[in-house]
Structure formats: C-alpha cells, structure tokens
# Entry
Amino acid sequence: MASNTREKILRQAIACIAQNPNASLEDIASAAGVGRATLYRHFKSRNDLNIALKMAAGQRLRDNIDPILNSDLPAVEKLSLIVEKCIPLGASLNVTSYFNLPCKEDDPRVMESYEKHMNQVRQIGSELKDQGVVAPEIPLAWVTASLDSLVFAAWEKIQDGDIAPNAAPGLVLGTFLSGIGTPKAVQWLNQHGE
# Structure
C-alpha cells in the first residue's frame, strides 16, 4: 500500500509541476489526496521529492531506450526509434521541469541515474560511428552532446508551445543527421521522409 501511495504522490507531483513548476508540497499532497504527514513519510523534504521525480523520469526514459538498444536493428533505425519514443515520453513526463528542479546536484543517486542515461546515449553514438552514419572524425563526446542537446531542446520547445509534439522527432532526427551525419545518413533520412 505504501508503494501505491508513493506512486500516487509522484503522479500528482508530475501533474502539479506540469501546471505550476513552483507547486508547493501542500498543493501536491492535496492533489494526491493525502495529508502533509503522509507526503513527508514518503519524501522527507522537497529535495527528496525533486530527486525522486528526476530519478523516476530518468528510469522511464531508460526503460524505453533499453529494448531498442538491445535490438539487432541498424544504428540509424535505432536512433529513429529512440527519438520517436523519447520525445513524446519526455514531454509527457514534463522532463525539462524535473531536470530544472532545484536539488543537491551532488546527490549520488541523481548523478548515477544521469550517468546511466548518458551511457545509453554514448552507446547509440558509438554504434552510429561504427556503422558509418556519423563521420569517424567527429568525437564521440560531440555526437553524444549533440544528440542529448537536441532531444532536450525538443522537450523544452514542446513545453513552451513553440513546436508541435508530432513534429519534434523529425526535427531532431533531421537536424542531427543533416548536421553530423555522413552522406549515407542523409540519404537514409531522405528515403524515410524525416
């Protein structure tokens, strides 16, 4: 039962923060239908709640990426699927708000979660380089940073209402492959109408 209450609080925190990034703990407890004491049994402070939200968002993203990374698909198709899954998921989770929530960034749990995500990004970046989708002379660190930044920018622009959620995956993929992809990648992009 405690697990269900914790999940309910997290779900309502997502909804509250989506409407108001500065939602108070009282607002979140009220939306979850629990008292402040119950909220504090699960989250000792706003920092604890913020950490839990960041970790939950990161876990959901990783859970969606792992099956794609572990598939036998060519790297460019993996990239396309990852972008198609992660952008709507990140937008629905209001990930940009989570990542901007104030918390002690030196918290090892947050840093471990972030590093796991970045390992996934490095893995797809390595596969893209190994399969000739990205030019070999481009450093992996740049491939990783470019992809991560484009996805985050898409989440932010969707949240701001500047781009449509259904347009964002194509924009990310097109910008990434046209910018640092090889002619082979651009040909794939043109053939797949991205």
In short: The two ends are 45 Å apart (CA to CA). The first helix runs from residue 2 to 19. Residues 55 and 113 are 6 Å apart (CA to CA).
